[in-house]
Amino acid sequence: MLNNAIAVECSQIEKNFGSGGDAARVLRGINLTVPTGEMTFLVGPSGCGKTTLLSVIAGLLNPTAGELAVLGVPLHTLKPSRAVEFRRQNLGFVFQQFNLLPSLTAAENAAVPLLAAHWPRKKAVEKARELLDGLGLAERANAYPNQLSGGQQQRVAFARALIHEPRLIVCDEPTSALDQNTGHHVMELLRAIAVRPNRAVLVVTHDNRIFDFADRIAHMNDGLITDIETN
Fold first, then answer.
1. What are the structural domain ranges in the chain?
2. Dist CA 147 CA 167 (whole Å)
């Protein structure tokens, strides 16, 4: 088991796609520790392996080699059904393109993780409304995604990621579809509502406009962590 202050620990993580001599080595021995109570950024040029590493950490891909512990659990060794349950209980996801369901209101979209966990619908939507209120969206809770601005959609996505109180939040390019002012605003909100002593926030980004929001920045290049700096 890991120290309680560590959310993610990667040791010599490798990930290949394909096999034999034609295999593409995307991760080539990643060593990375993600502490709780902080926001960690994973940055680097396109194609360096950032999103692949994020997918491995989130349990969406299994590593080819190395050791990985997420919240003290060797996630890649779990049976698929147990891994799905672990992710549902402990991880929150924020996607680049928001991935809101167009037929659901903002409150209903934010409530999806609770509905998936078989909460009563009324209770789940009530909790979603409370969370949206804290994000400044109380008056937009009944709006559909196509009635929301990009920044408002991203705040709904944050609510969806946070509503089940996960201990690890992973964000894939959360500001790439936003202008600078909106991007800064949603990152301020993310820091304010997501960073907690018992929770880690891991952000993959190439948007250097938001680097100041990170507590630590892990630089990647060619499938390796090349440098880690702290703010």
1. 6-230
2. 31
pLDDT tens profile 192-231: 888 999 999 999 998 999 999 999 999 999 999 999 999 8
pTM: 0.89
Which residues are paired to 28 by β-bridges? 14
The secondary element (H helix, E strand) that includes residue 181 is helix 180-194
State how far Cα 67 lies from the chain centre: 20
* Torsion on CA atoms 65, 25, 97, 45, rounded to nearest 10: 120
- What is the dihedral sign for C-alpha 64, 68, 71, 73? positive
Of residues 85, 55, 90, the one with CA closest to residue 198: 90
Tokens linked to 136: 């400044």
3-state class (DSSP) for residue 205:
coil
Strand ranges inside the chain, DSSP E: 6-17, 24-35, 39-43, 65-70, 91-94, 168-172, 200-204, 216-221, 224-230
Write the pLDDT tens digit of every residue in 100-144: 999 999 999 999 999 999 999 999 999 999 999 988 899 999 999
CATH 3.40.50.300, domain 6-230, yes or no: yes
